[in-house]
Amino acid sequence: MSLIVEKTAGGREYKVKDMSQADFGRLEIELAEVEMPGLMACRTEFGPSQPFKGARITGSLHMTIQTAVLIETLTALGAEVRWCSCNIFSTQDHAAAAIARDSAAVFAWKGETLQEYWWCTERALDWGPGGGPDLIVDDGGDATLLIHEGVKAEEIYEKSGVLPDPSSTDNAEFQIVLTIIRDGLKSDPKRYHKMKERLVGVSEETTTGVKRLYQMQASGTLLFPAINVNDSVTKSKFDNLYGCRHSLPDGLMRATDVMIAGKVAVVCGYGDVGKGCASALKQAGARVIVTEIDPICALQALMEGLPVLTLEDVVSEADIFVTTTGNKDIIMVDHMRKMKNNAIVCNIGHFDNEIDMLGLESYPGVKRITIKPQTDRWVFPETNAGIIVLAEGRLMNLGCATGHPSFVMSCSFTNQVIAQLELWNERTSGKYEKKVYVLPKHLDEKVAALHLGKLGARLTKLSKDQADYINVPVEGPYKPAHYRY
Amino acid sequence: MSLIVEKTAGGREYKVKDMSQADFGRLEIELAEVEMPGLMACRTEFGPSQPFKGARITGSLHMTIQTAVLIETLTALGAEVRWCSCNIFSTQDHAAAAIARDSAAVFAWKGETLQEYWWCTERALDWGPGGGPDLIVDDGGDATLLIHEGVKAEEIYEKSGVLPDPSSTDNAEFQIVLTIIRDGLKSDPKRYHKMKERLVGVSEETTTGVKRLYQMQASGTLLFPAINVNDSVTKSKFDNLYGCRHSLPDGLMRATDVMIAGKVAVVCGYGDVGKGCASALKQAGARVIVTEIDPICALQALMEGLPVLTLEDVVSEADIFVTTTGNKDIIMVDHMRKMKNNAIVCNIGHFDNEIDMLGLESYPGVKRITIKPQTDRWVFPETNAGIIVLAEGRLMNLGCATGHPSFVMSCSFTNQVIAQLELWNERTSGKYEKKVYVLPKHLDEKVAALHLGKLGARLTKLSKDQADYINVPVEGPYKPAHYRY
Amino acid sequence: MSLIVEKTAGGREYKVKDMSQADFGRLEIELAEVEMPGLMACRTEFGPSQPFKGARITGSLHMTIQTAVLIETLTALGAEVRWCSCNIFSTQDHAAAAIARDSAAVFAWKGETLQEYWWCTERALDWGPGGGPDLIVDDGGDATLLIHEGVKAEEIYEKSGVLPDPSSTDNAEFQIVLTIIRDGLKSDPKRYHKMKERLVGVSEETTTGVKRLYQMQASGTLLFPAINVNDSVTKSKFDNLYGCRHSLPDGLMRATDVMIAGKVAVVCGYGDVGKGCASALKQAGARVIVTEIDPICALQALMEGLPVLTLEDVVSEADIFVTTTGNKDIIMVDHMRKMKNNAIVCNIGHFDNEIDMLGLESYPGVKRITIKPQTDRWVFPETNAGIIVLAEGRLMNLGCATGHPSFVMSCSFTNQVIAQLELWNERTSGKYEKKVYVLPKHLDEKVAALHLGKLGARLTKLSKDQADYINVPVEGPYKPAHYRY
Amino acid sequence: MSLIVEKTAGGREYKVKDMSQADFGRLEIELAEVEMPGLMACRTEFGPSQPFKGARITGSLHMTIQTAVLIETLTALGAEVRWCSCNIFSTQDHAAAAIARDSAAVFAWKGETLQEYWWCTERALDWGPGGGPDLIVDDGGDATLLIHEGVKAEEIYEKSGVLPDPSSTDNAEFQIVLTIIRDGLKSDPKRYHKMKERLVGVSEETTTGVKRLYQMQASGTLLFPAINVNDSVTKSKFDNLYGCRHSLPDGLMRATDVMIAGKVAVVCGYGDVGKGCASALKQAGARVIVTEIDPICALQALMEGLPVLTLEDVVSEADIFVTTTGNKDIIMVDHMRKMKNNAIVCNIGHFDNEIDMLGLESYPGVKRITIKPQTDRWVFPETNAGIIVLAEGRLMNLGCATGHPSFVMSCSFTNQVIAQLELWNERTSGKYEKKVYVLPKHLDEKVAALHLGKLGARLTKLSKDQADYINVPVEGPYKPAHYRY
User: Fold this and answer.
1) What is the pLDDT of residues A1-41, one digit of tens each?
2) Closest chain B residue by Cα to residue A26
3) Rounded distance between C-alpha atoms, residue A406 and residue C143, angstroms
4) Structural domain span for residue A166
5) A215 within some domain
6) What's the pTM?
7) How many CB atoms within 10 Å of residue C369?
8) Do B150 and B181 belong to one domain?
9) Cβ separation A405–B258 shorter than 8 A
């Protein structure tokens, strides 16, 4: 796509694939609203008082139908919003079009190049001469990263006049980041400093981003307060677990139409994501094998009847391989060479480096046959056998299907709205320092409570006497902080 | 589409949506071949002797990727083939294109009108001046029906000179059938008699078609031998059960992206199809309720923890409704009016008359909003609440997804190949009368055996002593005819 | 026990372990009645007309609490009853005591020797000078066998004066049978002929007995009509499947207290019993491996995610071995030698010859340590490793636990009552020849229907129009004979 | 039983039911050792250095076979041990006999009165003139409670000369506690102070005891350091969850033989114990309904397909009721009156006050019929309908079956051994204050690791590069403290 910002009739900026899909997007947004009771309840509860009036929110989070409902909840509460996706394949173009037309500045399309991806991120952060956003909704931490790297480069430049050097790194993506910062520095050597000054805080969606935040907190380099939404119970134990239980088979089916029953599937990692994936595959009739580094998670797998082996033990016998680890270098090209013909390899955990895509692409004589977008067969020259790689090693549920379903995203995104409100409401109180926080348990319980009615549930109420007996307030929170659910 | 037959460079007739999708179809056919070991084994075993040399086969069966592998197995064994789909939404256009270009005369596309549908059926049966096919592969019995109705009309016409009168029926589809026969009669009053004369037999794929055949056998009107493939164990207990367990959630996800976990789902009917659907929904986290007329199937549902209630009991509380009965008038417009907003209604059992589509369409003031093809929201004027109907009431796994996966279809279709071979090889022996037959158990066991290696299974072998002890041959068959599996 | 018949105050014969347990037995019988709606419905429907008035019924079927409710249903309908167990370990002594005291002549206790077992069988068949029973309820066919062998011996004796020679066979149990017949012949050379003359027929409970009956039918040696209760759908697809799903883990837990989760379990055979066992073990968290001879059942296992391998493949890795085949020589001593220390070996399929008990007992240097009754550790001298054998290789759910639960046995036993009524009512009509019959489908459906109310189910009713559409009567039966459920 | 302490030949005190069962106990202990790899590994690792040499350990924890292996692990590491059970029904008499004969001073039998129970507790704490134990292994906190109440009473007595007054409380059990303390005070007014002085600390097994400890910590009344073993991941997420998944159906089956399939079961509470129970019941074919106060746990139940309702909604329709809440007054007599005839009511969560046993016993006209020990039918006079209460409202898995299986208890008890070692090794270092501690994550991971080999698992090893990437040590611990598993 040509990287030229467009404008709506009303003057709002955007860059999406196809504005004519906005009506289709709107229809699906309306369906999703019925499935997202937490977000709709936020509109009812907070909408009238317009708490976000005056707030600029930048989001870097998969631009899907569900995210559209999140964005329109933020705008319903008074915010101005700019948005990009946090994954090159995860945008649903009809969702992007509807939001761009109706509600917010969107820069996102399915199938961005890395260059385009970072251009979109920069656009979402750029609120014009007045600087950056007040708040960030981040997923994986790329928006946060850009600001931190920008500030770092500006400091070096101020001290030493040295510009960032993209050729200083082998990492293709980081070269692009440095290029963007370098080019920005030339026009405004205080751009990211000004952003940092304005920023009230970030709420981070996922494990990977949270890990980065805790590392920055530990090293004292975190530039603004952060709320770790990922570790709300109603996020990590719902979205990661039940979301993936739903969307892993969805992605497999849409990408390959393969029968799961009877197959041998390897799930690398048995955290919340791995647990959801293993459960889905087992229930669909696959024989599931787990790989793990952590003995506790390994023992959990065993208690569910899943053998725990190493990838080497099973690489030549399995039909489906799924990475869920949040780590890198899980399935290497040397593993892939040994797999059965048409073994399926995919990632639902983290960046595309869980799978050694670089090694695969540079394997001598390897041939790539694109069956359809996000479904490639890679054929090795020695054996003429091929493996099927989904979404180029990126999150397959977003690349090959439509991500998690609305209901479970309503849990996650209600946490996001509450986190953003908390940061904004306390922006002058000093409550939040440059640290990473999780939401208090009573808010976590509130998120859950907002989702019960839709499913017809009726809670039991504690009597005062019972509450005293177990030493909790009648209205909750009901569990100690260390409770694991 | 304009109903004009096209021709390949080599002169073979066809009518498909888009010939440019043939390459894409070929890639997916090649993937499917790896998943269809039974069909590939037939090619290896029978290909060299070309048993179908000289045989004309007409197929009326969903024109999907899996069917493409079936068709090319038939041609690999020497047959000439003409094909149409048996469902207006079930064709995969890339599969049709690849077959039309490379292997057989295809008349099929996704989204036919009823008019177009019967035109395609007629084309598939029309082998030119030399008459009709030698063999039919039927699914649901429409090709068989056309011939039987044609013969009946010709007899009346011969006796009385009276032509079929389309206005004699209310059924819109049957009006089209009568029109086709009437028009045919004018040009050749013996057309269907000639077809009947040539026909060696039909092999029928599914419950609905089989029921029709047994009724014709009972009334003495069956015109040629029929093999009931549906009731091979390796068909009904695999395709119907495990196929639907796979493809029901696939269809739901592709059509609606709705989260299944937490929802209340009603499965109407607990036969093999219903069992597969209920199992899939339960495992995805839905609360499943079953409706049944048969006390035995009802008791089976209860033993699996599924409550058995009537549709009336639950119509206003459930979120998802699936019909699997093979009967008509299961979900009526009066039920639909009482459903929750955005309740999903779909059919995976039989024709679109399981759901009262006629009643819905003619409901005063009802409004249809097409979200995307095969996904319609119907809004009732009184409540302004809508329900979501999939695939216009037709088979949702074929209309909204890609049908059953290759591996399970390989079981079904290997039965088809064996049935066709049996009919053809015995065409002059008198072995088969004008009756309905099932394949003998040793062939059923053979079909299963051909699918074990792909899944890494190793069978135990009976000793002679053990075989004698349980009174079976060492090589099988191992079970009495009444065994239920 | 001394083999002397005792008598109640009222003069009825019996031999049980401990008459003081009668009150306890009565309490559990009363609980079971609430769980056995089919039998209780028979009492209500048929009790008033006393259809069995004048009928003598001999039963050879596990003398459990559930059987007690069956016996008292037969007596409530007017029958006189004599009973023995069909397994040396399956009697529940409190049930036997209650029935002996209150309702029928019982000869059964837990832990009979083989000698005692056949003495009990003979007692149950001996109605005094007037000859044998009118009807037999058999399970496994031992009562039927004794009569057939008796008649055969009497014929030989009549022709040639030669008595049966127990030393003519290696089979220890058959030696006892021949001894009993020989001793009987001396006192009455027409004893079994007289029995045969009087006998109206037998209803047989289980696969093993049914196989024997079909073999006798095939060879023309069957002496009286037989109804195959085992193959009623409401028997084989319920008792065999759901009964074992319940009672296999029950037996494992009571016998060994072993944690099933995390273990590797091998299920030999994947028929109805094997399916129930595999399901229970999988759901309890075991990794289940199946062995099979039949490719169709093997493919079913694979579709449920269970690998199919041979015993040799897994013998040294598995923790639990269960035989369900109905065949002999499944787990041989040579397998047992290679098992892990404290591997558990048990049988829930058939006679104790599924496991090579003979080979184990005669293994040089093997040591048997009885942990508790029916739980033995056998230690091999080479390795000093032991295996744990349950119920001496006999049915472990009856030997180590209390067999199947009441509700599922109500299905089986309601079939028995209906079969006995059918034989008795038609005793003079000639309807039943010396062949094996299954109950007609409408009675099978009736049995199911009698069990729905207890579980709160509500059936849907067909309209006349719908019934016509699928060509069945409104009131059923709803399925063709070949339907597999 | 007469409350007179007996002595072994070697002079060790004990009081058990039947010393002749010691051999049987020993056989089962030997079987259990094979299933408890964590404890056996502790013996191998720590046994040679005799770290507990000189330590006196008092345990108050179900005196089962598994606990026997724990006790003999403590003695193998050099400790002297005195033991009582923490539940009147949970002792396995053969286990108690074997330990009393071979290893430690045991005061425990199945079916203690409350009076006997507290006598046993006092005996276990009484190490003679030299005072009390160095360490306590507690389960539910009764040993800890007795010391805290004793110290409190002694302080009051010292200040004011006032003795505890048993009639000051309505609670029958607390009356006994006060009586014991009062009687002790008369003979030694510093008895519990001396105990407190000597005590190094307690390790507590279960949720209920842990709650008491945190309350004492909060109020500043905790007298010695405590390690919360319950909240080790390898305890609460294993024993509570997988243990109950195993032992709930075990208890139901042994107590009632009832068929679980088809029944409606209510699980009150969806914490770890409730999750295990619900999973077991669902998998056995029951329809499970959950009651909850906590919206997060409620939403988890819904995601697993379990409806969340109140007890009032379902009380008259369900067949089985299980309490797992850790709270009191869950099922009241007013609920029980409305239940179906023969509904089963049981508790697997906490004390017998989860069920209103007091209300039931004092209900006018109610009749108790003991079917067998721990299985009572209570008949209400108005309806003549009865309910079946298991284990008199106490923990049914211990009262009606044999508690959790060895393997999962090995996880829990390895934590206990490690906790006791930690307290003892640090007894003079000041590391532990009068607070409640959990074990550090690396020890938790170690416990898990010790249990993998038995189940044939193979862990994947992190490379240094991967470990750095996710910022953890190569050897673990692998997760942040807040991780929920």
Assistant:
1) 789 999 999 999 999 999 999 999 999 999 999 999 999 99
2) B371
3) 64
4) 6-234+404-443
5) yes
6) 0.96
7) 13
8) yes
9) yes
